[in-house]
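Q: Could you predict the 3D structure of Putative regulatory protein, FmdB family?
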Amino acid sequence: MPSYDLLCSDCGHKFSVFCSISAKDQQRCPSCDSPNIKTRFTAVNVSGTGSKSGSNSSSSFSAPRTTGFG
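A: Sure. Here are the predicted structure tokens for Putative regulatory protein, FmdB family:
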């Protein structure tokens, strides 16, 4: 199951939930109990290193870092 970063349209509270896609649409704000929730799009950090046999090269990718959630 995926994790979703959500934002309450009424009070501005930011929160995360770990649920199915269908359950995401039924979430309510834990702060004010409003059903007016929007999905927040946040960056995902991905990094890795790899090398091919017979080669001294390695590659790495890093997504932009965010200042934190919340």
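Q: Anything worth pointing out?
A: DSSP finds one helix and five strands in the chain.
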